[in-house]
Each structure stands twice: as structure tokens, then as C-alpha cells.
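Exercise: predict the structure of this protein bound to adenosine-3'-5'-diphosphate.
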Amino acid sequence: MSDYLWFEGIPFPIIKYEKEIIEKSCDKFVFRDEDIVILTYPKSGTNWMKEIVCLIQTKGDPSWIQSVPIWDRSPWIESQRGYQLLINKEGPRLISSHLPFHFFPKSFFSSKAKIIYVIRNPRDVLVSGYFFWRKTKYVKIPESLTTYFEWFLKGNVAYGSWFEHTRAWLSMRERDNFLLLSYEDIKKDTKSTIKKICDFLGKKLEPNELDMVLQYSSFQAMKENKMSNFSLITKDAAHNGLDILRKGLHASLSCWVTAQGLVFSHQQNGNKA
Ligand code: A3P
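Solution:
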């Protein structure tokens, strides 16, 4: 059974990650003003946002998303492969990261690079994570959802505590180069969200281009796109293949209440949310 790669108290996936690279990304990675970062706690809709931003960049033309794997279009700054791809890439970069706030490259804070942070109801993050991670070789596999729930509350899951991650990143919400979106709002009104992202990125789309972004980033279109659905994942990373698009559901209001209860009980236990 795989465990985690522990780095300064935070569990990282055991394969494709190295302490030296995480350290380097934190201390040495140099941001450029024109860079765009998609930042999330895992299982919050990261790949959906990547697809949307890629399509905005091509004005709805699907050739790029249908010919290049999603992890190469927007590499992970903290992974071995992603870091190398990013430092060698010229021009504006589309970057992904799950890094907790205090590990994020320092150079970002003196740059004009932009972050899109997607937050999702922790209840759905938890369930999505449980079904995703257990198919991979990246992390320690929980024997049941109850066990995973306990680990989740303690932050003993990949990338640490959801509570700490969101609390720290949300402190950036008033900055001009930080856009906060929720998975639930994107789902409720995807078109308006795409327009909001375009405004944030200073991009203008014609109505037909906007419709193409919407069409090619839909759940069904992404599920059928082998460059985006994780079917190209290699055998060293997953036991029997992966499908990142599981259900794509979002919690009802009553479930959000449950999620808030979860945050509340976490606070009651002496942890700040
Ligand atoms: P579920 O596991 O609940 O289905 P991430 O990309 O951060 O790993 O998040 C994965 C979650 O985002 C999965 O949730 C997946 O179904 C959902 N997702 C991915 N693409 C989506 C899309 N186009 N529309 C709606 N949900 C999407």
C-alpha cells in the first residue's frame, strides 16, 4: 500500500512528486506577469476550469484541447514533470497547482500573474476524493469512506487540510489578480461564469465563440475527450485506468448545511476553518 510523500507536515502524492521540486517551486520558480494559475484543493473542479480557460485562450476552437493532454496544457508547478515543462516554456503560461498558500512560489506575490481559485463544497470534495484516489497509486488507500472522512478532517489526505487550504487562500480574495469561483456557481450558470473569467483575463469572446467554450467544456464533451478524461493515464499511476469525470454532481442546499456543520464541528474541535 502506498503512503504519502510528507513535506513539512503536508502529505503529497507518493509518485511523480519530489521534495526537491516542491522546495524549488516554492523558492525558485519565477512568475511572469502574464501567467495564469488555476488553483484548487484537489477534486474541486480543477480540470473543468483548465478546460474552460484553454478554450477561452483558443476562442472556442477545440483543436488544442483535443490534441494535447490536459496535464501538458496546464502543468502542475509542484510535480516533477510539470515543473520542468513550465520553466522551459516561453511566453505566457497556464499553470495548475494544489499547493497550500504557504508553499506557493514567493515570486507570485510581487507579480501581476493571475490566480483563479475554485472552491467546492467539502462534502463533495470528500466523496469525489474518496472515489478518485483509491483508483490511483498516488496515495495511501483508505479501507472505507468512514476512514477517509476521519483522515480528511485531520488533514491527513493529499495536500493536507481542506479547511487550512481554503482559509489561507481566501485571504487573497480582495486582490485584483485573484478570482474566486465556486464549483456550484459554475455549474448553476456556466455561461455567466465564462464571461466573468473572460473579464478577469481581459479576453473578449464573440457570442458564437462563447457558445463553443460552453459546448466543449461540458461534462459530456470532456468525458468523451481522451485528452481530458484521464484515460491516457499511465499504468504506473493507476491500477485499472482512471475517469476524472465521475458524476459531476453538486450538493443540494441541505448538503451545504451538512458541509457547514462539518466545518463547524471542525472548529469546535479546536481547528480554525
Ligand atoms: P465528481 O467526482 O464529484 O464527479 P478535479 O478536476 O479537481 O479533480 O475535480 C474532479 C471533479 O470535477 C469530479 O467530480 C468531476 O466529475 C468534476 N468535473 C470535471 N469536469 C466537469 C465538467 N465539465 N462539468 C461538471 N463537473 C466536472
